[in-house]
Each structure stands twice: as C-alpha cells, then as structure tokens.
Specification:
The structure holds two protein chains of two kinds. Chain A has a two-stranded antiparallel sheet. Chain A is 71% helix and 3% strand. Chain A is mainly alpha-helical. In chain A, helix 1 packs antiparallel against helix 2, helix 10 runs antiparallel to helix 15 and helix 14 packs antiparallel against helix 15. The longest helix of chain A is centred in the last third of the chain and has 47 residues. The N and C termini of chain B lie far apart (55 Å). By secondary structure, chain B is mainly alpha-helical. In chain B, helix 2 packs antiparallel against helix 3 and helix 3 runs antiparallel to helix 4. Chain B has one domain: Helix Hairpins, CATH 1.10.287. Chain B has four helices and no strands. The chains are: A mainly alpha, B mainly alpha.
C-alpha cells in the first residue's frame, strides 16, 4: 500500500545533497585548495547516507511497504502522464544505503588517493554527479526517471574512466565503455517504448499492477524483458557486452571501486530485480539470463586466472560476480541476487580500495609480478585485503559465503549441471583471488628499489570499515540452517518477487556446503603450493606459452574477434560511405548546384548594362509579353 | 453631373479609346527613343494623362463617379512624382552638366 508517511519527503534530500555537492565543487573548481573539495563532496554523500538511514527507520515504523514522493509533473502530453517521482521502498532503500555508505567511504578514501592531483576538484565534482545519477536510477518511480539516472551514470563513467585524459589509451577505454553501453541502451530504450505502448504507462506501480493479471509467457512481455535485458547486459558487463569493463580500469582506482564494482555495474541487476514481476512472466527470458550469467561467470573467471594487472584481475572478478548475480536472477531468486549485490559491493569495493592502496604504495605499479612481500610493510591493507579475498571466495562466516552459497543452492535446486558449472566458477574465483593475494603480499619483494609504505589514515580507515562490513555483511541474511531468519530476503520480499522460496531442506544444504568447502580448501592449498612453496611467478609477456595458456592470457581473443567481426567491417563501411558516397556522389551534387547558379549568374549579369533606355525597353517588352500571355489564355 | 456625362457621351467611346491609345503610344515612343531626360519626363506625364482621360471616359459611360475620383488621386501622385523627377534632373544637371539619360550608365555589374 502506498500512503503518506510523515517525513518521507526527506527522501528528496538523498539525491539533492550529492547534486549540491556537484554544483559546489563543479562551479567552484578553481577556488578550492588541497582537500577542500574532497571534504565538501564526502560530507554531502555522508549526509545523504544519514538521511537514507533515517528514511529506513521512517519506512519501517510506518508499517508500509512503499511510498511515492512526487517532485513535479514532468511530462503531460495527451494521455501520457509521467511525474518526476521517487519510489521509496525496501529495494530502493537497500540500494540507497549501499550507494551512500560505500560511496561516502570511497569519497573519503579518494581524498587520500587523489591527493596532489591537479584536477582533484573536477574529480570530486564528477564523483558527486555520479552518486546523484545513481541515486536517481535506484529511486526513480518510473522507467523514465530510472533512464535519466541510467544515462547519467554512463556519462560519469565515461568522464571518470577518461579522467587522466592525457593518456590516449585511457581515452580509448572511456570511449569503448561509452559506445558499448550505448548498444545496450538502445535495447533499453526500445524496451521502455514497447512497455509504454503495451501498458500505456511507464510507472512501476501501474505497469506491475497491470502485468500481474497477465498470463505467464505472454509474447509481448517476453520481448519487453529481452529488450530491457539488452540494456542490463550492457550496463552490467555480461557476455557479449562485457569487454568494456576490464578496459574501464584505466580510471583512477576509487572510480573502479565505486562505479565499476560496487554501484553502476549493478544497475542492470537492480533494474531486473525491480521488474521482477515482468521477468517472472517470461520463462524464456529467465533461461536466457541463466545462460548469459553462467557463461559470463565462468568465462571471466577463467580469464582472471591469467591476468597480471592487479586491477584487471579484480575487473574480471567483478564481471564474474555480476554473472553470478545474473544467474540468481535467471533462477528467479531475485532477492538473493540483490543480497549478492550488497555483499559484493562491500567486498569488491574493499578489494579495489586495497588494490588502490597497493598501487599508491608501489608508486603506480599495477603488475602483480613485480609486487610481493607487502604483508609486513602494509599490514592494514594486508588484513583488509585478506578479509575481502576470503569473502569473495565464499569462506564462512565471511559475507560472500552467505550470498554465493545461496545462489549455488538455488542452482542445485534448479538443475544439477548449472550447480556444477557455478561451483566450478566459484572455485576458479577462489584460485585467482588467492593467486593475487599470495603474489602481492607473500614471499619477497620482486621490484628492486621501491620502498612501499602503508597508506595514510584517510585511506586505511575506509578500508577497515569496509573490511568489517565484508566480514559481517553476510549476517544480514542468515539462512535458517544457522539459526537465522533470512531477514534481508524477507525485507526485500515485499517489493521483489522471487519465483523460488528461500528455503530448502537442511540436509541437502549441509551436504552442498561441505562439498564446496572441501573443494575450496583444496583450491586454496593448490594456490598455496603453486605460489608460495614453488614460488611460481607468472611468465613475462614475451615468454613462450602453451596454446591454451596463450588463449587464456589473451582473453580468448574476444577483443580481437570483436575488432574483426564488428569494428573493421563497420569501419570499412563508414570509409565506403565517406570515400565513395560522400566524396564521389554527394559532394559533386552539392558543388554542382552552387556552380550552376554561379554560371547562370555570369550569363544573366550581362543584361545589367547600366543603359536606362535599354531598361525602359526591357520593361515595355516585358509588359507586352505579359499582356500577350494573358490575352492568349 | 447629368449634363456633363451626357456631354461626354456625345462623342462615341471608340474615339476616346483611339485618342488615348495614340497619346499613350506617343508617350511610350518618347520614353523609349528620346535621350533628353526632360522630354522623357514629359512623355511619362503624357502617358499618365492618356490613362486618366480613358478612366474618366469609361467612368462617364458607366455612370460611375468613382473612376473620376480616382483620376484625381492619380494626378496627385503624378504631381509628387514630377517633383521628385525634376529634383533628380536638377542634381543630374549639376553633377554631369547634361540631361542625356545615357550618361547615367554607371549602375551596372
């Protein structure tokens, strides 16, 4: 039920504060010195977080599930009536809390990380604009407001990936991210248009109210969900549109943490979870999501095994984890997917910020082959990174265990093959994360002449807070096996409609957990044996490799395939249009019109001789001709 | 009024038309073939007045006074036009010391 709740209008403050921060830091970017912009930006997001927490209690005490806050009537044309409204319910509150909490920590961290950068004020302005757009995305009460946020985060992603724009390859990465997202957005727009034509509304409440009366498998719903899925696939970096995310690591590390790990890339998952009613009506789409999610999870994990750039490993890990979220969505376990979004936001932001701390300490070095032995020199980073690694690997009682295990259990219920593949992906995740951990922190330092040091407090404190969240975040949603009551899933259940129940028999669950834990310990031991005992360091770039290793190291040549299949033909076609159509056909026509006019002018100007008698004569002759013309009609 | 109209109508309309066409043609020929600007202006007046005469004649034959009223307007405009034309003529005489229209040939491409 939607009703009026006292103080709910405070929700407007949540996006307004980051917008204010953006305006202050953006307009005054020449004025602020040192950390001023960072402090303003962090304060705005922090206040936004406090308001979100307050709203959480307001909504809980009101006893209602959702509230709509209308700012103004935005589009009113004919029978189309779209208000600019925010929807405050359990799902959007969850996302708001994630965005503002992780966002404020990353902003604080950035004060230390970006210290001394001469465009630090622009950086914070763009980060605030991003947070504003992201909040708009998750708070919008209809698909159009969501879409504004959707495009806004895409823009900020582009700006921030290319933040160090003096490096051409960073610019290329920014363009790549923007263009690939554009492909997805095209599907998203078409989906919204079709949605409007079908339901005559884009507001969530009206669309879902109408959709809940429809039959399962209605073709138009399948088409709509598939089109929306295209947008989600682009935004959340799934096969086939995932190649932009690893390249997006060109941006500063806090950007990777905030945009390309914790928040923006989960927008697609949020959107599908929000539209759960529609997706539940389209079994075909759900199966497509399972295939996409599972294949992305495994492919990205395999590529992650052979990456040597610390941020690239984490990027592929993000793609892989997003694949798990998609898998959960496809299985109909929407609230589980959102739970994994939450825990992933904590531990992946932690891992990225930890990586940033390492890069900071190593003076910009990102190659894990050159690191090593940082455990003693950077204890805070080490312990928090370890917590993040254990969390993402799914070791109990860290947060990733609860969310990932829940997805695996759902997969087991659905189909044993999906379970085996998903488990294999989880094991790969565990292996590459421990490979990263061992190579970076253990044994001796391999890069001579550098003196790593622990990062300043402004960077380590956010790490510690995120570390605590990564360790304990899973306790939000303890299954009944461990005496919990799935409070997080139940909280979401009011607004996100999962197809499958959250509970299965305890004996099966125990069996699955024991199986995965056994295999995980084996994998950790394998990684330990390879990288600590045998001290294997990944081969340098030029060394000989077996064909399979080369295939994996080169990311299955997917970028090259895209270049050959799409980019080159498209470029050739554009070239054809330019060289043949434009230069050889259109240009002569346009030039010809101009030249013909001027030739005509050259001829007729001879009539203007300046002789008055001739003008008189011409006038009389003209009048006579006119009279003759009239008379002969 | 009745008397004037009937007096005009004593002469057949064809005669008026012939006279007007003749006057108009004389004026036109003068404009086309003479080089003296004063004569050209006079010829233009001649053409004006031939048309005025024609309008007045038709007006009388159709018993419609508005034609004759219109003639007065034309005469007023013609008077104004003559004032402008003659002042141009004076300027021309001062500048090129001639009234030959063919000397004004510098306004061309």
């Amino acid at each position: 039920m939607v009703g009026t709740i006292p103080n709910i209008n405070l929700a407007l403050l949540v996006p307004a504060l980051p917008l204010l921060g953006f305006l202050i830091t953006g307009l005054g970017y020449k004025r602020f010195k040192n950390n001023q912009a960072g402090i303003i930006a962090s304060t705005c997001i922090g206040l936004s977080f406090l308001v979100s927490v307050f709203l959480f209690f307001v909504l809980r005490n009101s006893g209602q599930d959702a509230a709509t806050v209308t700012l103004f009537n935005w589009i009113a044309v004919g029978n189309m009536n779209i208000p600019f409204a925010f929807l405050i319910d359990h799902l959007s509150l969850t996302m708001m809390l994630i965005i503002t909490s992780v966002g404020s920590l990353i902003h604080i961290y950035s004060i230390g990380y970006m210290h001394g950068d001469n465009r630090i004020n622009s950086f914070f302005a763009q980060m605030n604009l991003f947070t504003f757009s992201m909040l708009l995305l998750v708070m919008g009460a209809n698909y159009l407001v969501l879409f504004i946020g959707w495009e806004g985060v895409g823009l900020c992603s582009y700006l921030l990936i290319g933040f160090w724009f003096k490096n051409p390859s960073f610019n290329y990465a920014a363009r790549k991210a923007f263009i690939i997202n554009r492909i997805g957005d095209l599907g998203f727009i078409l989906g919204i248009i079709l949605l409007f034509f079908t339901f005559n509304s884009v507001s969530f409440s009206e669309v879902f109210a109408q959709a809940s009366t429809m039959q399962i498998g209605t073709p138009v719903i399948t088409v709509i969900t598939l089109l929306l899925l295209v947008g989600a696939v682009g935004k959340s970096a799934q096969i086939p549109l995932f190649t932009w995310l690893p390249d997006a690591m060109a941006g500063p590390t806090p950007v990777s943490a905030l945009i390309h790990a914790a928040t923006m890339v989960t927008a697609g998952i949020y959107m599908i979870a929000r539209s759960s009613i529609l997706y539940n009506l389209a079994p075909i789409t759900l199966n497509v999501i399972i295939v996409i999610g599972l294949s992305t999870a495994i492919l990205a994990a395999i590529i992650g095994l052979k990456q040597n750039d610390i941020k690239k490993v984490l990027a592929y890990s993000t793609v892989s984890q997003l694949g798990y979220m998609f898998l959960a969505l496809g299985l109909g376990a929407h609230s589980t997917a959102v739970f994994h979004v939450t825990t992933h936001a904590f531990f992946k932001a932690l891992l990225f910020l930890g990586a940033g701390s390492i890069i900071h300490a190593m003076g910009g070095e990102q190659d894990i082959r050159k690191m090593g032995g940082l455990r003693k020199k950077m204890p805070v980073t080490y312990w928090t990174f370890l917590a993040g690694t254990l969390a993402i690997s799914g070791i109990p009682p860290f947060s990733g265990f609860f969310s990932k295990d829940m997805i695996l259990v759902k997969a087991f219920e659905h189909n044993i093959m999906i379970y085996i593949l998903a488990l294999a992906g989880a094991l790969l995740t565990c292996f590459y994360m421990f490979r990263l951990l061992y190579l970076v922190f253990f044994r001796e330092q391999r890069l001579a002449g550098s003196h790593p040091h622990e990062s300043p407090k402004v960077m380590t404190i956010p790490l510690i807070i995120l570390g605590i969240l990564s360790v304990f975040g899973g306790f939000l949603n303890i299954p009944s096996l461990f005496g919990g009551d799935l409070s997080f899933s139940n909280f979401l259940q009011k607004n996100v409609f999962s197809l499958v129940s959250e509970e299965i028999s305890h004996s099966t669950e125990i069996g699955l957990i024991i199986l995965s834990l056994t295999l995980l310990s084996l994998i950790i031991w394998l990684a330990y044996r390879t990288f600590i005992r045998r001290a294997v360091v990944p081969a340098a770039d030029g060394e000989l490799m077996t064909p399979i290793t080369r295939l994996v190291t080169n990311k299955f040549y997917i970028d090259e395939i895209y270049t050959t299949v799409f980019e080159k033909p498209f470029g050739a076609f554009s070239n054809f249009l330019f060289k043949k159509v434009e230069t050889d056909i259109l240009n002569p026509i346009v030039d010809g019109v101009g030249e013909a006019t001027s030739v005509l002018g050259m001829l007729t100007r001879r009539l203007q001789r300046g002789n008055m008698s001739f003008y008189f004569f011409a006038m009389v002759a003209g009048i006579l001709l006119f009279i003759i013309f009239i008379l002969t009609i | 009024m009745k008397d004037i109209s009937s007096a005009i109508q004593l002469i057949p309309l064809e005669h008026y038309i012939l006279l007007c066409v003749t006057l108009f043609s004389i004026g036109l020929m003068g404009v086309l073939f003479r080089r003296n600007t004063i004569i050209i202006l006079m010829c233009i007046e001649l053409m004006f007045n031939s048309i005025n005469l024609l309008v007045a004649a038709f007006s009388a034959y159709h018993s419609d006074p508005s034609g004759q009223v219109f003639v007065f307007f034309v005469m007023i405009v013609a008077a104004a036009e003559v004032a402008v034309g003659l002042s141009i003529l004076v300027m021309m005489k001062r500048n090129v010391d001639s009234v030959d229209i063919n000397l004004l040939n510098r306004l061309k491409w």
